[in-house]
Fold:
Amino acid sequence: MAKKNPAKAPAAPKKVEELMTGTTVFNVPMPADLKALKGMSPIVIKQPYQIDYIHSYGQDSPFFAGLSNGKLLGTKCRKCDYTWANPRLACTHCGRETEWVEIPQSGRVHTFTTCYFGGEEFLKETPFHLVLVEFDGVDTLFLSRLIGPVEPEEIRIGMKVKAKFRRNSQLKPSDVYFVPAE
Amino acid sequence: MRPVYMVSGGVSKFAKARPDATFQKMVKESFDYAMKDVPKLKLSMIDGSVASYFSDHFTRQLMAGIMAVDYLGLCPKPNKRIEGGGATGGLCFQAGWEAIASGRMNVCAAFGFETMSHVPTWKGNEFIALASDVNFDYPIGGFYSGYYAMMVNRHMHEFGTTVEQLAMVSVKNHMNAYGNPYAQKRRKLTIADVRNSDMVAYPLTLLDICVMSDGAATCILADEETAFKLTDRPVKITGVGTGTDMMRMADRPHGEVLLAPNEKKSDYRKLKYPGVHSFRAGRSAGLQAYKMAGITDPLKQIDFVELHDAYTSSEIQTYEDLALCKYGEGGKFVEEGYPFMPQIDYGMKLPKKGTLPVNPSGGLIACGHPVGATGLMQAVFAFWQIQGSIKKHYGDGELQLKKADRGLIHSHAGTGTYVTVSIMERGW
Ligand SMILES: [Zn+2]
Structure:
């Protein structure tokens, strides 16, 4: 059984979280006898590391343009009759160039989870539900968030879901999310 | 191709953090241990090395491989870095095998490390999630435990696997590690303990998931002539296989099963494969290695397995990929006791206990998972099992299997993106 949703019922922490804050030290003690150096404790410092990248979506850019216009764009290989929900401009089966197609905005939950923890960037958004959505006429699945249900027990494999789009596009795949459609 | 042998190995004790040592020193600890175990091996006899570490983000030092090489005294001999996510260590082991099999080297040191303590756990999870597609998958909430939770939910839906069966894997591996002094977590647990620990990603709890570690491991590989000069108990590597699959698990096909020699098409009439419930790369790697080693019935022909249990669920999925049981029977396989050690009391009724011990060392869940070292650590633990030298290296022989002539090691990346399988056998 799942434990109670921690966001609803916050528990007292079981341990103290390590902090990345501290005091700046400008000097450390040094023994007079160099033989004592091998018994010295390690010096541990904080090293910040922050970068802004100029990242291009390249040939996949139309997918993101689609999201900001309320469309889900995938690609299709006419020769193999195979459609990808996430675009792939070269067919993985025959190597030919694929074509852009619009994919349905309604589908079903193929599988799901509820994340109570996450990578640091998403920790503040927990708990959240991840779903892989399956669509009629599309050969691959689509990773997205499911908004609406509170507990994982409210989500069911096979459940009908439909796409919703952020009004203000972030030009990220999270511009689209799914909600229950039943 | 020339036959390849493993002649020695060493592991630094895996720990949550090793502030007392840089990665070079951790590698040297494992390397020195391996050198000491075969006193006839001199540094001058090593023709070159291969280095593995997974993440430039964790290490924050490009070309770290060469810094370990110069610390070990292996300049100006050949070296290169091997990287492939969670399978980095397994790929490195096979790169060492290639160096010997091709005749390029007679003795090769394959070493690996990871220093994961340099960032807090949740930042570490963010770094690991960068090994998922950063255009389409990562921004949705990149978190590997979430990805594996989705896969096991589908496995449960498809085959009826239960959370108690997952928990049994955790109990087994933590209990095995109780006898392994190298392990990071040595705990006696019950199924209830596993289920009552914090939920991380439904249905996986904290005790279903491996932890981050600092650590290093080294394997020394040699050609046949040199191997028998160095030791009277070399272990022969008789099969290697490497499989791959689409980076985005959403892109995996829903087609037909890659059949193992002990399976028929009619076994899987309705199954869409691999979907997100199975690892096609693992099956592919296993089949290649089995073919090379002449294995047609792995459950009968293999004595033990060290596999990549980053999650209890992936251990169960991997039983099936390796054809230790049919697809869909992984949950039953653990429930009936097949992968448990014969000599250990787990406090559970296990009718088939000891049939094919899996992760006698405690696996990643209990030993820890310093990514670049993990696949090599498995090779070292398997090497000691086959040699019959567990007591010598663990200081206690409780985990020594009576029959350990042939072992399988398995290293796994991403959501099943790179997988390596290598077969190791008694060579004397
Ligand atoms: Zn095609």
The CA atoms of residues 13 and 103 of chain A lie 45 Å apart. Chain A touches chain B through 49 residues (CB under 8 Å). The first helix of chain A runs from residue 61 to 68.
